[in-house]
Design goal:
mainly alpha, 3 strands
């Protein structure tokens, strides 16, 4: 037993004792366009509880986090205290097993044409007075 480890005390599985490649089963990172910081993930409605019993502790923690709604990939990484790359790998594995659903980030709004907005505003002022 490691020094300072008392009976009944639980070892933290994400400690330096467990290398990160063990958590991900040696899987590589998914492509950059998958699981961006703002990609939203949630647990799939079906098969979630049955298959969740066979997950690693870290994957189980991710499943618990996303069970009740959508969280971004960055939020999942923040709550689990795991590196973003490791979370992306876990999410890819969970989606492959049909345990989660991922929604791509909403694209940024295009810049508005200021002249058009000004013209509309002027038209409204002329029509309704202001």
């Amino acid at each position: 037993m490691p020094e300072g480890f008392e009976q009944g005390e639980e070892l933290e599985l994400t400690s330096p004792l467990v290398p990160l490649f063990v958590i991900t089963n040696g899987r590589a990172l998914p492509p950059d366009h998958e699981y961006e910081h703002t990609t939203l993930v949630t647990a799939a409605a079906e098969n979630g509880q049955i298959a969740a019993r066979t997950l690693s502790p870290e994957a189980g923690q991710v499943m618990d986090l996303v069970a009740n709604g959508f969280l971004s990939v960055a939020e999942v990484a923040g709550h689990t205290h795991l590196p973003l790359g490791i979370v992306r790998i876990l999410l890819a594995q969970l989606e492959e097993d049909s345990l989660i659903l991922a929604r791509t980030p909403i694209p940024r709004a295009e810049r508005v044409d200021r002249e058009l907005v000004s013209a509309v505003l002027e038209g409204l002022k002329n029509r309704f007075g202001a």
